[in-house]
Amino acid sequence: MPDTPDPTRVHPSTRPELTNVAFLSTVVSSPLIEIGEYTYYDDPGGAAEFETRNVLYNYGPAKLRIGRFCALATGARFIMPAANHPMIGCSTYPFTMFGGAWTEATLDIAADLPIKGDTVIGNDVWIGRDVTIMPGVHIGDGAIIATGAVVTGDIPAYGVAGGNPAREIHRRFYDADVELLQRIAWWNWPIETITAHVRIIMAGQPKDLAALARREGLLDG
Q1: What pLDDT digit, counting tens, does each position of 135-175 carry?
Q2: Does Membrane count among this protein's keywords (predicted)?
Q3: Strand blocks (E) in 13-79
């Protein structure tokens, strides 16, 4: 098999300028975080510490789910639902967290706070530097999130979004091509097939990738 990055290595590249890049599936241990193979985080301050530095307020039932072949730049942060404060009455102060009489009097209120569910990042997503992603957001396959964006709502597959709050600027492909790319789902191909055709995956158009997938028996129709 040709030389390819080892998804079980923390730092997959031997190039000295890329020692700040880590495959996240090798360094994350929390059961509340699920990350696909070949997804990396790039941070000269310690990419291997992503779980504690970049996933904030990570306790409770909601999970962070990130797909395969995603690229996360320095400072990408995920705010999890436990960061939420009550907003049903006069005060947003989190009395419940301090224990004692405050907790006893307000525990039922805290337990009934709405939870937006898992934060889900698709496959082949590029998240730019210093992006903040809020609880419960879903970002589709192939999306790009611009530097400094604060993502408070869902971003569709192959959308390009930026700003605060982030808004979709445009889509990378027409709707029919987006649907086709998601059917192809190259990120789920065997790594040998990806390696053999990496130039088309990287530089080809959807029709090129579809033709390849059909030849390889990886796409019907």
Answers
A1: 999 999 999 999 999 999 999 999 999 999 999 999 999 99
A2: no
A3: 21-23, 33-35, 40-42, 55-56, 64-66, 71-72, 77-79
CA distance 82 to 42: 26
Closest CA to 141 of 156, 151, 152: 156
Global pTM value: 0.92
Mean pLDDT score, 75-91: 91
85 among known catalytic residues: yes
DSSP state of 25: G
pLDDT band at 1 (very low <50, low <70, confident <90, very high): very low
Catalytic residue among 11, 85, 170, 197: 85
> Percent helix, strand and coil across the chain, each rounded to 5?
30, 20, 50
Domain definitions of the chain by residue range: 16-172, 174-221
Cβ count within 10 A of residue 35: 24
